[in-house]
Amino acid sequence: MMTKLLEWLLCASVIFAIWCGMITSTSPVVEEWHKTILFLPIICLFLFGLYAATVVLYRVFTFNTCNSAAIELQQEIEEARKDLQSRGIILSRQD
């Protein structure tokens, strides 16, 4: 079974091999686009960074808040605090 790291490394290796092949090629089409091909890794890195930032921002802005879970958690904290006080452990309240 292939891990995600191996999948990414395989894809990166294939893309790198194709890019190296295009740089060393003497095809007229490649010679016409030679400068663009040289900067292709930098362009791809920029586009990947833009994609990653967009995904992170989207997921932050659409993060669900669950008010009922927050209320339930506060109740459980109060129950635990009362239980500890009944056992003789006094906690200072920090709100």
Secondary structure elements and pairings:
Blueprint: H1 4-24, H2 28-32, H3 34-38, H4 40-61, H5 67-86
Total beta strands? 0
The overall number of domains is 2
* SS element count, helices: 5
- Written as H for each helix and E for each strand, in order along the chain, the element string is HHHHH
Basic shape: rod-shaped
Radius of gyration using CA atoms only: 28 Å
Quaternary status = single chain
Largest sheet composition: none
Uncertain stretches: none
Note the beta-strand portion. Answer: under 5%
- The helix/strand class is mainly alpha
Helix proportion = over 70%
- Measured between the Cα atoms of the first and last residue, the distance is 49 Å
Describe the structure in your own words.
- There is one protein chain.
- The protein is mainly alpha-helical.
- It folds into two domains: 58 residues, no CATH class; 32 residues.
- It is 77% helix and 0% strand.
- It contains five helices and no strands.
- The longest helix has 22 residues.
- It is rod-shaped.
- The mean pLDDT is 89.
- It holds the Pfam family DPM3.
- Belongs to the DPM3 family.
- It comes from Lasius platythorax.
- Keywords: Endoplasmic reticulum, Membrane, Signal, Transmembrane, Transmembrane helix.
- It is a multi-pass membrane protein.
